[in-house]
Structure formats: structure tokens, C-alpha cells
Amino acid sequence: MTDTPHRRGADRTEVIMRTTLELGQEIGYAKLSIEAVAARAGAGKHTIYRRWSSKGALLLDSLLSLHESDLDYPDTGDIVADLREQIHAAVDLIGRPPFGPLYQALVGEAQYDPRVAAALNERFIAPQTDKTVARLKKAQDQGQLASGFDLDLAMAILSGPLYFRFLITQEPLTHEYVDRILDALFVGMGPHPQP
Amino acid sequence: MTDTPHRRGADRTEVIMRTTLELGQEIGYAKLSIEAVAARAGAGKHTIYRRWSSKGALLLDSLLSLHESDLDYPDTGDIVADLREQIHAAVDLIGRPPFGPLYQALVGEAQYDPRVAAALNERFIAPQTDKTVARLKKAQDQGQLASGFDLDLAMAILSGPLYFRFLITQEPLTHEYVDRILDALFVGMGPHPQP
């Protein structure tokens, strides 16, 4: 890899994002500041502000850019197994320490700061929704998903129960919980015809 | 109704809670303080602190105590109709102005303050979960709900998609959205046997 100006910029961006995560884990979201990240990363404050408008946007990018590929869907041809694997990875990453408390604080801030809410949706929720719908659409075409299932609701139905536990009851997000939710959603709440 | 000391205490409590909602709607959750509520309600600060440990606990109680009966389940014998009616009432109350922004800020604060999270769960989530499970259990006994449906998941599955929209995508909680979610949950995501 040649040390071009472009590459040096990418390196610096990565150093800033890694520093954000390290510092965030050390001192917590409330105390994290762009000034402190700049000082530890040896970067100018304005360099950071040129790219990120708030510490929420910086933290979100840092979480995602360094781990985005962890959240891609596998495609083994079995939709339930693939959803299970992807959601296990997602709750391992953003529902638990070390990143869990930072992500929780970020969602908390999104309740007050519309810029953080917009960044969360643009950078994370919308792309994940697109990936989820694409994987489910393929399953639907293959007859593995109810033909009438409303794909526009998929993200809310699949991830809503996880956010409910993460943000409201604040119990741990376990693989077992994910599996029980998936089982219940695929079977449905309605009574089944007698055989 | 006689003007007993007990009754005067209940009146004062109600005045404090009404004042909390009025002031919260006027100035927003961030600026709301127990001191300001006390001043406007003509009550002592310590009178309020004796009953409520934080402004989050006070606001939650104010929201709920004055409107709790709005969130009871009807029982017409039709579980889908009854869920729909109760959830419409719930999103009308806590998902929209005037109370919506206050409830949203409260859930935001629950991400930082464990006392607010505990109050939210004890005062609102746990009782609503009990009511929901009781109504669904009856429906299950009457054959209106899948016999194997895991009732312990019911609250997460029914309200998770609402919280996802309320807290994450932050789009309006409409009756139409509630109806689409209920339809999808009752039918289920799995493919249906060919007739």
C-alpha cells in the first residue's frame, strides 16, 4: 500500500475512530468529547468537526465503520438460520459491552438531539433495513417467507423486540432470547387450523 | 366526599401531578425541575421528594396516575379487536403530543439513569405486561391465539415494533401502523401450507 495523501487521510480517519471507541469505553459517553478525542488522537479539533458534526455522529461512525461487515447477512439458503446468525452477531456487537453501553447512550441522546437521530437512521438503520429487506425478499421469492408478509414492516418486527429489551426492560440480549423471538415471529400469534 | 386529611393529601398529590404535566408541556422535559413544580403547585419541595425520588419518577407517575384507566384492555371476546383498541389508546396517549415528547424524553433519560429505568419498568411496563398477558391468556384458552405462543414474549413482540418507530426511526405512530403490525404478527412470517 503506497503512502499517498489519500491513504494518509484514511489512516488518520481510522485512528480518530479507534480513539473514539477506546476513549468512549474508558470514560463513557457522557464524558466523551470531540476535544478529548482530538487530543488523544493527535488530530486537530477542526479536522474532526469537518467530517463529523457531533460526538454522536462520530461515535456512530466509529462503531459502524470498524465493524460494518460483521452485520452483513449470510445467505445459506435457509432464511431462519441466516436471520439467526446475523441477529446473534448484531446483539453481540451493539447489545453488549464493550460497545453496548455506548450504543445505548447514543440512542438515549437521539431522543433529545435530532442530529443524532438523523445520523443513527442514515448511517445504521436505513442500510440495515435495506439489507434485511433484500435478504427477506429473496426468501419470499423462494417460498421461505409468507407470501403476503409486508416487507416494509420487517425491520420493526424483527428488531423491535430487541430494542424493547435493550432500552426498556434493560435485560441482557441473549442468543436464546433472539431464537425465541424468531420462532414466535415465524409461527405467528394466530391460531393454527386443526390438522 | 368528606374533606378528611387523607382526602386533602390525595388532592395535593393530584395538584402536583397535574402541575407536572402542565409545566412539562410548557417548558419541556430538559427544563422541568422538581423545584419549579413545587413553586407552581404551591407545595414544599420536600413534600414532592418524600414521594418521588426524581423528576423522571414524578413525571411518569403524573402521566400514568391521571390516565391509567385509559390503558386497560377491553374484553369483547375478540382478541384482535381488543388489542387494536388498547394499542390505539396507548399510542394516542404516550406516542403523540401532548404527552409523547415528555414520554420520549423520559425513555431517553432511562438510558442514563437507572432510577428512571427502574421507575419506568415498575410503574408502567410491568403492570402493562401483566394486563397484556392476562388478556392474551384468556384468548389462548378460548382458541383465539396460537396454543404454543410464548406469553412471556408477548409484550416485547407487541410493543417492540411501536418503540422501534417511536425511539429509532421517530416516525409518527398511526393507527394504521398499529393495524398493519397486528395483522403481520397474527399471520406470522412463516410460509403457509398450500390449501
> What's the CATH class label of the largest domain in chain A?
Mainly Alpha
Q: And the CATH topology of the largest domain in chain A?
A: Tetracycline Repressor, domain 2
Note the beta-strand portion of chain A: under 5%
CATH hierarchy: architecture of the largest domain in chain A: Orthogonal Bundle
Overall structural class of chain A, as computed from helix and strand content, comes to mainly alpha
Number of strands of chain A: 0
Indicate the low-confidence ranges of chain A by residue numbers.
none
Share of helix of chain A, binned: 55-70%
Say what oligomer this is: homodimer
Largest interface: A-B, 48 and 48 residues
Largest sheet properties of chain A: none
Tally of individual helices of chain A: 9
The rounded Rg of chain A comes to: 19 Å
| Overall form of chain A | elongated
Separation, N- and C-terminal Cα atoms of chain A:
64 Å
Question: What is the domain total for the residues of chain A?
Answer: 2
Mean pLDDT across the residues of chain A is 91
Description:
Chain A has 195 residues and is mostly helical. Chain A folds into two domains: 5-63, Arc Repressor Mutant, subunit A; 65-187, Tetracycline Repressor, domain 2, CATH 1.10.357. Chain A is built from nine helices and no strands. The longest helix of chain A has 28 residues, at 114-141. The model of chain A has no long low-confidence stretch (mean pLDDT 91).
